Amino acid sequence: MVNIISILSGNYDIYIDGLTNIMKRVKIISDKGRVEGDFNEKERRLIEHYTQVLQTRLIFGNSSNICVLLGVLHDENFNGYFENKNIDSISQLCNIILKVNDSFPLPEFNQAETELNTLKNYFGRMKTEFSEERFRYVETEIMYFLGKIEYVLEILEIWFGNFNSLNQDVTELEEYYDNVKGEFNQNALENANNLMKALHEVESYISAHPEDINPGWAFIKLLFDIEKMDNDNYDYWGEDKKEVIFALSNTYEKFEKNHVFIRAFGDRWKFCKVRLFRLRRNIEM
Q: Which of 129, 120, 189, 210 is nearest to 156 (CA)?
């Protein structure tokens, strides 16, 4: 867990689909581990260190974008607010935003009880201002950079805000397909309903991450396990068996369009269709 948080804090490409869900999952596990005493003192210190590194990278790495957006919004140069300052925390950024607002008040902006919520309120009001006609020419570009700031605030909320990880179940995020480990959870094979949901999850994931080969490997293993169940107990899911096998075939056909899997797994991937044929042959067509 310490190594995973270290990797997340040092990952410079934070604008990745699904990263917030991964961070929620890691936060849940790390918080529960600390409460239940799974980490020693050194590990606890390292987790705290890497989460602070993450905060620094998120704030400092976006300070120039924030400075530019403020300049566009108020038609002023705000370099003096940001130059020669180590803006690397929620608190420091909030102080600067409040100073800016003292001189250039943003309509209907309200300071919140926490610094993070104050920032969320400010950039929310900023987004409303940027939707006005006077910014129409550059609206797409403005919203692109503002979207990055909103994404950063979402991640900061997970680690430093009101995201209550201790009241959430790890399985809420990836109930049947674990995109961190790249494999199906054991509960996917408990019954036909779970398997159908698992296939839906992995299809949704691969549509957003077409270059990730892990779902392909997970599907290969899943078919192996299903065929073993079929050989051990022909009537393993009763009347639902036929529906499941057709669902597996449909998922395979969708994945087959992804040439990443074919290149990565070669004969293993082609053999999936042989397994499916054998499964289909064992049911009434």
A: 120
Can you read off the two tokens belonging to residue 49?
Answer: 């260190």
Helix or strand holding residue 178 (H, E):
strand 177-178
Find the DSSP H helices in 11-138: 19-35, 41-60, 63-74, 79-82, 90-103, 115-130
Asked if 52 contacts 150 with a C-beta cutoff of 8 angstroms, the reply is: no
What is the reported pTM?
0.60
**Bridge partners of residue 178, in order along the sequence:** 183
pLDDT at 204: 79
Q: What angle do CA 118, 121, 123 make, to 5 degrees?
A: 110
For residues 106 and 126, the answer to whether their CB atoms sit within 8 Å is yes
Strands (E), 179-264: 183-184
Query: Cα–Cα distance between 217 and 261 in angstroms, integer?
Result: 8
Return the ∠ at Cα 204 (arms to 201 and 206), rounded to 5°. 105
b/e map 45-65, b = 16+ CB within 10 Å: ebbeebbebbbbbbbbebbee
Higher-confidence position of 83 and 275: 275
Region class of 266: left (phi > 0), else alpha (psi between -120 and 50), else beta: left
**pLDDT tens per residue across span 234-250:** 777 888 888 889 999 99
